[in-house]
Amino acid sequence: MKRSLLSLMVALTAMSAPAGAEVMGGGPARTDCLGAWQVTTPETKANRGAVGVDCQDGDPTCDVDGAVNGVCAIGVSACVNRDGVAGCAADVVTGVTFSHRASQLGVTAPVLPAGGSACGEATIVSLPLRQTPRGYKPSRPVTLAMTVKGAVTDRDRVRLRCVPNGGAGQCPANPAGGPRELTMVVAASGTDLDNGVSGNSHNFPVPSGSTLRMCLTGCDAATDSVCVQDEAATDVVKNPTFGPPIPLFSAGAPVCIVNRFATPSFTGGVADLASGAVTGDLHLLTDVYLTTATAICPRCSASAPGKAGTCDSGRRQGQACRTESLLDVKLTSGRDTYALSSDCPPLGAPVGTLTLTLPVTTAGSTLPGPLPCGAKVNDACGTGTCDAACTGSACVATTPDGQCVDAKGGVSQVCCSNNTQTPCFPTGSGAGAIVRVGGAAVPQPAWPDPSYPKTAAAMLVSTFCEPATGSNVVDFVSGLPGAGALVLPVTQTWVP
Fold first, then answer.
1. What is the per-residue burial (b if ≥16 Cβ within 10 Å, else e) of 393-417?
2. Beta pairing partners, 266
3. What is the pTM of this model?
4. What does the domain layout of the chain look like in residue ranges?
């Protein structure tokens, strides 16, 4: 079927989402709060006159796909009864009608009548840049209009345009002349996340596509390959979270984990362009949500990574999202696949928030025992020892290099001698320690070749301490406080 350059992805749910519009749409101030537009996120405001929004290709505040790819995927929501507008009082909204273009694209109203703030589901409008022999030019503008009716009438417009990226979401140029940014994107397999000493929360996978970014300085084009992190610039361009929410199902307890970047997010970063070696401290605020087995974390309606859709539940139900990863979760009754997006956080408050510092490295990371990180016991092996190869559910497959893959999806390390399906940390003896081994590879084309981007496959690892969450259920199941360990195979990309 022939498609227009303006493409629509229709949301899967029919419930209203919390309001947060920022493009008021014009008209008299006394009626301005009755109708308004939300453009992808509540932070997006009109920047081209009173109703125009120019979205830079790849700007995550307005471009749902978050990539500089010649197309802006813009989420558009019709909202009513915007809070906090001076000189305008909320009213019961009984009707919303749309212009032909808005109706053609499938823009929907919130559930009516509405006496409070509400937004309809997001419609994803795709605006391609125009390509010329001299490069990209802004897309053709698209104007949407609606009429909101209550005791009075409010008419609102929004004019959307995609424009070439002028630096939004990008690291600044490296003053020394070398690459300006290193991105490290988590691979689709080979990851491992181990939490606490019980073994119940070991061998979880980390969602593919989770990304660490480092803005770089110091290294140059030919004489100095050692880049240091520009911490302030990294904090400006970083995503709010390290990857999407992570659905974990452990000993019957469904938990949704949101890893927010702290401020600063990454410190002491050093990256060698010649070898690919990286070190630094990752700072996270990890929110722990107790949820349900049927909806451990919210999902994005787009079924493939990189595609735009809407959140099926959570704090941003019905609003625009980009699927970042597909994660297969092992449940008691089988398996369930989650399309995950950092745009779709859980609803409500977490049962606890952990403040974590993870020293990540491509070398090696060691946490010695006994009883590291305030743990009360070293493992759940009882009379056994933590020194056995894993079997059964802890080894349902093997990686190309012979490591066991747990039924949960993460890589198994070591198990109890008296129950080889129970993972453990080998810290019980005075000489015991948790050890994770990383790896670096020379980015290609090899420095000082002037060609970019340069890429390499690397292994980031970390051993770290985790405090208790404050939830008796989570702390008992996981065995916290205690140690944590992380293995992340990543693709490095160095960009000029």
1. ebbbeeeeeebbbbbbbbbbbbbbb
2. 282
3. 0.86
4. 8-163, 181-245+255-285+356-495
